[in-house]
Design goal:
This protein is mainly beta and 697 residues long. Helix content is 1%, strand content 45%. The protein has 1 helix and 51 strands. The strands form 14 sheets. Strands 43-47-50-49-48-51 form a 6-stranded antiparallel sheet, with no helix packed on it. Strands 3-11-10-6-7 form a 5-stranded mixed sheet, with no helix packed on it. The chain starts with 11 loop residues before the first helix and ends in a 13-residue tail after the last strand.
């Protein structure tokens, strides 16, 4: 039947021109005449000259059905079949293409378009010759106030709101039956803050959790029917205009097969979904439904202005991009100035100059050493010049510069010594959020060690602790590991020949002119020459673990010692210069208070590197670090630790195993060692005493 076009009549001529000649203007309602009883099946079909139309009620993504439990969702689909041999186009005045209305006793109980906003653009739908097109909408079995539908029968009418195109045949309304929820079931809907407490207000962007509880308040067990596995509940927030700004089921995907769950008397089933408070300040309504249960009472959320914050930080790194505080003389120094949006709302940064940042290197007195723009003539920008960058929450904008270790004023190389990187942002935040000052980052220029030889062998001696970290002091009785590393620097394979089966390494421990422990003492060696082959650039390591006893098996006294070594080769084999002795001390490690922990350097594991910059910790992969723990009398041999890495925002959970002498290592699952980064909490694994906690120094 023909319908009045209201305000669209004033633009009828313009639309007629846009639609082309011969386009009739009509609105087709896919319904039966007034008073016609609804179809008792889950679908209704009618055929006309151009289209066959079908209205079907079904579970979301599931089978057709006409009976729903209170709180379930019905999907109402309108399918059009083009019966002609040519394409057919329907034109709609807005983004709304159809309307659904549920009535009971002649009264409107629910309207699909109520509270929804549609794009104000002309919409066209073309159904190809012999093809099909489906339009669908969901009815969550709640009325216009968000309250659950009362048990009873409802006639659902469908209409297409097109204003041009062929007619669509009228359909008999589909009659749906809503069954009352079982007696004793109750529901509760709430928003929780990050601490798990009910939240009636939040700042824009704050993390929240929507929680819906279904409880059995009766005295008998209940079975709650669930039409779909993933859509057995839903919750949503609507703004003042009634538009939904968030819905729990929006990202759930296709629903799975339905079923049921049992609730014993007094039992509760809980459903949750994470969200963030809307970005616009205002008051929002919270509503929800639960399959097979009465809809919960509506709630509200008041959103305040979004929290804002910007941080400005400096980073200094080497040519490989690894943070460091020491650079060889002449090596490039990479400086990064990072501005980060730590707030909950986007921040727009604005500059009236192309010089958006200033990065400099100064000496420790604050005098300028280097500025990449030193001596450059900067042309003033034209009037009205502006640069804008928008930072989303959690995102950063980074400016980089590379210093070649020369002075800007003379272009001459600087001398080794202490320096600092400084930086500032030359713009502002449009919102007025202050941009803090970046803290200068100190570093040193050092004289690099001489390069390795182009050919031949070198030997290096190192003293390590029980977890493989370099150490210069040991407790009495603590294991001391001595490693002799021999490297072939030749571009070709090379061979060293040992005089017997005891190998190339002759390692000993000395004190002054006295040899305290000789690793060769008491060994029986096969009397045969042994060739040890080295690939180009290969290093072979020979290890000797010393238990702090002399050759007679007696414990040595506390004091200074040194590891010594020589490379045993026969006459005619390549000779290797003896490495420098490696000094260390026994008994000089001070006794630390109970439950203290210390990081003693950063090492690599499988080529993965970790570094520290000030109080920030950069962790790439899972690096290895030495950890020293002195247990108290009530500690068990194993304690647990939680490490927080500031830049990752992650928590590492693992076990700290106390080694002989009080050393420990932290492992996370089956993986390699993990760097502990402050703050670190250490607690007794058995008693979990929260009082035993420390901070990394």
């Amino acid at each position: 039947m023909t319908n009045t076009l209201g305000t669209w009549m004033r633009s009828a001529l313009a639309m007629a021109l846009a639609l082309g000649p011969g386009c009739a203007r009509r609105e087709t309602r896919v319904v039966a005449a007034a008073g016609t009883a609804g179809s008792t099946s889950a679908s209704s079909t009618a055929t006309g000259p151009t289209f066959t139309a079908t209205l079907t009620a079904r579970e979301p993504g599931g089978a057709a059905r006409s009976v729903f439990d209170a709180g379930q969702t019905a999907e109402l689909a309108i399918e059009l079949l083009n019966r002609t041999a040519s394409d057919q186009t329907l034109v709609f005045p807005t983004g709304q293409t159809f309307e659904l209305v549920a009535t009971s006793g002649g009264q409107v109980a629910w309207r699909y378009s109520a509270g929804r906003a549609f794009p104000q653009v002309i919409t066209r739908i073309t159904v190809p010759a012999g093809g099909r097109h489906e339009l669908s909408g969901s009815w969550p079995m709640v009325d216009a106030r968000g309250l659950p539908m009362a048990a009873g029968d409802y006639d659902v009418e469908a209409s297409l709101v097109h204003v041009a195109g062929p007619a669509v045949p009228a359909l008999v309304p589909v009659r749906l039956t809503v069954r009352a929820a079982p007696a004793g079931l109750s529901t509760e809907l709430a928003l929780l803050d990050s601490a798990g407490l009910p939240a009636a207000s939040a700042a824009a962007g704050d993390p929240l959790t929507a929680r819906l509880r279904v409880s059995n308040r009766g005295g008998a067990p209940l079975k709650v029917q669930v039409p779909t596995a993933t859509h057995s509940w839903d919750a949503w927030l609507t703004d003042a205009a009634g538009a939904r700004v968030w819905q729990a089921s929006a990202t759930w995907g296709a629903p799975g097969a339905g079923g049921s769950y049992d609730l014993a008397p007094g039992a509760t089933r809980e459903f949750t979904e994470s969200l963030r408070a809307p970005g616009a300040a205002g008051r929002y309504a919270l509503q929800g439904v639960a399959a097979g249960a009465p809809a919960p009472a509506a709630g509200s959320l008041t959103v305040t202005a979004p929290a804002r914050g910007l941080t400005l930080g400096l980073e200094v790194a080497d040519a490989a991009g690894l943070p460091t505080s020491s650079f060889p003389l002449g090596a490039p120094v990479h400086v990064a100035l990072r501005v980060t949006n730590t707030g909950a709302a986007p921040e727009t940064l604005e500059w009236g100059t192309p010089l958006r940042e200033t990065i400099q290197v100064q000496d420790v007195a604050g005098a300028l050493v280097w500025d990449p723009r030193f001596g450059l003539t900067i042309t003033p920008p034209p009037p009205g010049f502006v640069i804008r960058e928008t930072l989303q929450p959690g995102r950063s904008l980074v400016f980089n510069a590379v210093w070649d270790q020369s002075r800007s004023s003379t272009r001459q190389a600087v001398a080794p010594g202490p320096y600092q990187a400084t930086g500032r942002l030359n713009g502002r935040a449009v919102s007025g959020t202050p941009i803090p000052t970046a803290t200068p980052v100190p570093f040193r220029i050092v004289v690099a060690p001489p390069p390795p030889p182009a050919a031949g062998f070198t030997a290096r001696l190192a003293v390590l602790d029980a977890v493989g970290q370099p150490a210069a002091a040991f407790r009495t009785g603590e294991a001391v590991r001595v490693e002799l590393a021999i490297t072939n620097w030749s571009p070709a394979p090379a061979v060293l020949t040992a005089p017997d089966g005891c190998g190339l390494a002759a390692t000993s421990i000395g004190s002054g002119a006295t040899t305290v422990r000789d690793a060769m003492a008491g060994r029986m060696c096969t009397m045969a020459l042994v060739d040890v082959r080295f690939a180009p650039g290969e290093t072979k390591t020979f290890r000797f673990d010393w238990d702090q006893r002399n050759d007679a098996g007696q414990a040595v006294a506390a004091g200074p010692y040194e590891a010594r070594a020589r490379v045993r080769t026969v006459f005619g084999s390549a000779s290797v210069a003896a490495p420098l002795p490696a000094p260390f001390t026994i008994g000089a490690v001070p006794v630390k208070p109970a439950n203290t922990l210390r990081i003693s350097g950063v090492a690599t594991n499988n080529g993965i590197v970790a570094s520290r910059i000030g109080f920030d910790v950069g962790v790439v992969g899972f690096p290895k670090s030495r950890v020293e723990v002195t247990p108290s009398a009530r500690d068990t041999p194993a304690v647990t630790a939680r490490a927080l890495a500031a830049q990752l925002g992650r928590s590492f959970l693992g076990t700290v195993t106390v080694l002989p002498g009080g050393d420990a290592e932290l492992r996370v699952g089956p993986g390699p060692l993990v760097l502990l980064a402050g703050p670190v909490e250490v607690a007794n694994a058995r008693s979990n005493d929260p009082g035993q906690s420390i901070r990394v120094q």
